[in-house]
C-alpha cells in the first residue's frame, strides 16, 4: 500500500503532485504516475522505477492543469511496469483512478468485464475499478456510489473524470485517506505527511466515506448515499 495525492486548486498541479509523492517516498514503491485534467482530457504520465523517472517524463511531456492525482505503487497485481502503474483509466479514457490496496474479487470482476467485451490493458485490480466507474452512469459521485457494492477488499481510491474537470472523488475501505482543507485549494492524500506543508486543517476519512473534493470545499457523503 503506497502513496496517493490528489489536488484541486488554483495553481499548476504537477509540482504539487510531485512534491506530495516525494513526501510519500519513505513508504517504498516500485513505480509512479499522475493524471492531470487538461483541456477537456485526462492526461496520464507513468513510469516504472524511481520518482526521478516520472519527473523526467513530466519534463519531456509537460502537463498543465490545476486538478490532478499522483500515485506511488507497490505492485500486488501485475509486475511493476509502466502499463501496470497508476493512474489506471477506463476504456474511453474518461476516468482515471489511483488505488492503494487489494481487490479480493479481482478474478470474478476481471472475468465479468472480459465477458462483457472490455479489453483490459493491465494486470491490475485497479484497472477494474476504472472500468467499472467508466461503465456506470451519472456524475463521478453517482458512479462511485453505484460501483462501491461491487468492490470486495481493501481500497483507498481517488478518481477524476474528464467531464467534471473541477472535481476529485476519494473513497476508502481499509487503507487510510485524509483530506487537507487549504486556502483556495483542497487536497486528499494517503498520509498527512503529504499535506502538512500546505495546510494544518485535515479531515480523516472513515471507512465508507466518499469525499467530493472541489476548490471551494470538501463534501463527505456515506457510501449508502
Ligand atoms: N493492488 C494495486 C496494484 O497492484 C495497488 C497496489 C498499491 O497499494 O500500491 O496495482
Describe this protein's structure.
The structure is a single chain. This protein is α+β, with helices and mostly antiparallel strands and 225 residues long. The protein is 22% helix and 35% strand. The strands form 2 sheets. Strands 3-2-4-1-10-9-11 form a 7-stranded antiparallel β-sheet, with helices on one face. A hairpin with a 4-residue loop joins β9 and β10 (186-189). α4 (126-135) crosses α5 (140-147). It is globular and about 45 Å long. The relative contact order is 0.18. Residues 1-2, 73-78, 99-102, 124-126 line the site of glutamic acid (GLU).
Give a brief outline of the structure.
The chain has 225 residues and is of the alpha+beta class.
The percent of residues in helical segments reads: 10-25%
CA gyration radius, whole angstroms? 16 Å
The gross shape turns out to be globular
Q: How do the SSEs run, as a string of H and E?
A: EHEEHEEEHHHEEEEEEE
The helix tally amounts to 5
Would you report the number of β strands? 13
The side-by-side strand order for the widest beta sheet comes to 3-2-4-1-10-9-11
The proportion of residues in beta strands is: 25-35%
- Distance, first to last CA: 27 Å
The class by helix and strand makeup works out as alpha+beta
